[in-house]
Amino acid sequence: MHTSDEVYHQVIWDPRLDPERFVMGIAERGAPPKRVALPDFVPGGEIPWHRVLFFEADGEIVWDRASHVDRLRETAAGKPPEPPPPVLAVPPTHRTAVAWIPPHELWPPLQHIRREHDRQIHRWPPHVNVLFGFVPEDDFPRAAPLVASALAGVPAFRARLEGVHWFGHREDATVWIDPAAAGEEPWARLRDALESRFPLCGGHSKGYTPHLSLGRSHDPHRLAADAEALLGTMTTRVTELVLLSRRGEEPMRVRAVVRLGTGDVRWAPD
C-alpha cells in the first residue's frame, strides 16, 4: 500500500491525474475528519502525513488508511491517457491537396480576373489550400477517414473574402484575396487538425497564410487595386473541404468531399 505522501505526490506530478478532482481527509481531534481540497494542502506544513486518513477522487474513495484501500490506478481519475489519434506519415506530392473551393455563385468575378492573370486557371479551380502537398492519390482510401475524423471536431464557419494582397517573387508577384478577413482562427484550426493526422504534409502552421490566388503580375499594385474594386467583399460559409488530385496532364479534380463538424465523406465519381 502506498503511503499518503506517495499518493499526494503522484496526483500532483502524474500528467494523467487532475489534482482539482481530489479531496483529502485530515484527522481532527474529537471531530469528524476535515475535508481539504488537494491543491490547498501544504506538504511540510502544520499537518503531518500520518493525519491524512483518505483521498477521494470525484467523491470516490481511492486511498484509505484504515481499510487499506489503495485504488488510485483503478479509478477514472487514474486511467491512462487516451491513445494519440492515428496518423498517416506518407511523404507528400504536389499533385494532391486538401482545399476549400468557394461555392459556384462566387466564381464569376474570381474567374474573370484569373482568366487574364492566372496561368493555372486550367489546372486549378478557385481554391484555398489547407494542405498542399498532400499524400498521393493512391493513399486517399486511407487518408479520407483520417481527414473525416479530424474535421468532425471543427464546426462550419462563416468566411469573409475581402482585401487583396500579394506575395512578392524575384520578378513578379502572386496576387490573392484574403479568405480570412473575418479572422484566421477557423482556418488555423483546420490546418492544425489536419497536420496532426498527416505529420509530413504542409509544414508548420505558423507559416500558413490562407489565400485564394487570383494570378501573377509584374505590377501587383495595379492588379490588386483593380481586383479589389471588382470583387469588393464576399461572404459565405465554409462547410466542407475537398481532396484534390491531378492525374497525368489533367487538371486538379475533386476526389472526395468531407463535411466539417460531421466528418461525413462523399466520394466523387471517376
Explain what this protein looks like in three dimensions:
By secondary structure, the protein is an alpha+beta fold. It has 2 domains: 4-78, no CATH class; 96-267, Cyclic phosphodiesterase (Cyclic Phosphodiesterase, Chain: A, Alpha-Beta Complex). It contains 5 helices and 15 strands. It has helices spanning 4-13, 107-117, 140-152, 185-197, 220-231, and strands spanning 22-28, 31-37, 52-57, 60-64, 69-70, 96-100, 128-131, 157-161, 164-168, 173-177, 212-217, 234-238, 240-245, 253-259, 265-267. It has a 5-stranded antiparallel beta sheet with strand order 2-1-3-4-5, covered by helices on one side. Helix 3 (140-152) crosses helix 4 (185-197). The mean pLDDT is 92.
Measured between the Cα atoms of the first and last residue, the distance is 64 Å
Low-confidence stretches: none
- The number of distinct helices, counting runs of at least 4 residues, comes to 5
Radius of gyration: 28 Å
* Total E-strand runs: 15
Oligomer: single chain
Structural class: alpha+beta
Strand content is 25-35%
CATH topology of the largest domain: Cyclic Phosphodiesterase, Chain: A
Protein name: RNA repair domain-containing protein
Domain MJ1316 RNA cyclic group end recognition: 1-65
Organism: Streptomyces lateritius
Pfam families: 2_5_RNA_ligase2, MJ1316
